[in-house]
Amino acid sequence: MIDIHFGPQICGDLTSAASREWLVPDGLGGYAMGTVGGLRTRRYHGLLVVPGETPASRQVGLVSLDPAVTLPSGARVRLGAHEWASGDVDPRGFELLERFDLIDGLPRWRWRIGAVVIERELAMLPGRSCVAVVHRLVAGGPVRLELSAACTWRDAHGERRADGPVPQVEAVADGAVVEGAYRLAGPGWAPEGQWWLGVHHREEANRGLHPDEDLWYAGRFSGELERPGDTVSVRAWAGRLDEEPPPAEEIVATARRRNRQVVATAKPADDVEATLALAADAFVVRTDQAAVDVVAGYPWFGAWSRDTMISYEGLFLCTGRADEGRELLRAYAATLSEGMLANTADTGRVEYNTVDGTLWFLHAVSRHVTVTGDTDLGDELLPALCAVIDAHTAGTRYGIRVDPADGLLTQGAAGTALTWMDARVYGVPVTPRTGKPVEVNALWINGLAGLAELTELAGQDAGELWRLHRQATASFRERFPAPAGWLHDVLDAPAPAYPLGGAALHDDDALRPNQLLAWSLPYAPMEPDEATLRRVAGGLLTPLGPRSLAPDSTEFVGRHRGGPADRDGGYHQGTVWPWLLGPYVDAARRGKMSVDDVFVGVEAHLMEYGLGSVSETADGLAPHTATGCPFQAWSVAELLRVRRKSQ
């Protein structure tokens, strides 16, 4: 894997150290997460974040273990880091960091206090909500180490305040149980019990959200580090509290071995691919029901079917996980209703509100059978997939139907945004894209051809599917090219002066990246030409991927910043989306264009934001600062997929 490490100039500079985040997942949808400098900048940061019934319903438990070293002289040096509502940062342990490393996906910190050197390693036990934190004396000593446990128990999206109930902490043999939900265990436990008031999260402030919370100082662990090699370790776990996990150092070793095996199974061609393979592993989880699922992004997303299906080939087929992928596809097929795939359970209920999620599902099944030769799965799912085509032809929810006049797929209903550009501001869609979106119809044509091939592999007649495919393809080629020199983004869209359902329609020729799918999919409706692709790239391509709207558009938003309304308003109006590098690279290759230099910026990004991973979004204007989730499934999956194709 690529070597990710930082010295004192990064670690000791708060802005630099606090803007680089690490993630250690538990394989269930929970995680430990923080920054290089140890400062918690998000309400989502913590050492034990526990998944609920769905990956999105997480609870924050153990927030931090703040080290303090008592030297032989009697001096006490604090190595933690907190920012307070007053603006103070205290303590400032990051100033004593001489090195941070991410090794096999696990973080390691190294503090130097004169001749005394202390390391911290952290890992989660794979498949269990359990974190192990190991502190080791590397040089110097003897010293005494104390670890102050800051705790809470709350929804990951919220905060807890001192004007509410005091957390219940029950003493047990080697530590404590907090709120009956998770247990802390380590040496020399001494209970405390007081509020730390006004802990500040700078990233929440930047996102226009409430930035402060109060933490409960539950107590501290302590131990002597007399000679190099001595350790003081703490474990925290949720779930089966009476079932003690292995020793902390064993948990670290187990996690390290597993991560190495994940990489080996993927058979990477180089260090970047190895890093992406391990990054991909974070998103593949087993839920409470032991079902395989995909977390769309950390730290705040759960499972979204559109993201899952776009990510499918990269996460499963490029990493040697086809058996798990098969299980996932079968489970998702069971959610089909009226020809539509369930979108998400993040809200606690099943929703059917996308026009493209189901079409990406057709694509994922087709790719699975093509890549693996698993025709048994194709045969098994064929009736359900054919029912999808029938439902779309006849018409299903939200006006999704095939227009018999041209065979293209149209969609839209008042107040809805059914494509991947689905942001809303105060409930109003920013980009409703009502009508016939270009990528939806590219996916429709791709799905018809893929399903026709599956039908023929099953020994059945695919004549009607091929007829629908020919009609839609001919109409696509005739209607989507725009006078501007690229493809229309939406055909038959309501004219701006008319509400949905009004008499006037127009064809929207805004320069957006959705058209890339018209050239990139396996059964794409059009062959790309270099001149068109260069126009598209000239307006959209950045070092981290294509923008969602060209900068010369009057609606372009160059900075994905501010409160929720500001961020949602710019989400698809110029913000960069790294996952779109996948379609761009595929289209460019089909157009005989070189893409050797396309990956340079995004590969450097692996060490800039979410360490070893790829962010959800970035600003549309230079320097294209990363935004959104630091760890995003489809961003990682698509980069891994198209890089692997280039090997």
From TrEMBL:
Annotated signal peptide: none
Species of the source: Micromonospora vinacea
Lineage, opening ranks: Bacteria, Bacillati, Actinomycetota, Actinomycetes, Micromonosporales
Alphabetized InterPro entries for the sequence: 6-hairpin_glycosidase_sf, 6hp_glycosidase-like_sf, AGL/Gdb1, GDE_C, Glycogen_debranch_N
The Glycogen debranching enzyme C-terminal domain, residue ranges: 279-641
PANTHER family for the chain: GLYCOGEN DEBRANCHING ENZYME
Glycogen debranching enzyme bacterial and archaeal type N-terminal domain residues: 20-227
Protein name: Glycogen debranching enzyme
Pfam families in alphabetical order: GDE_C, GDE_N
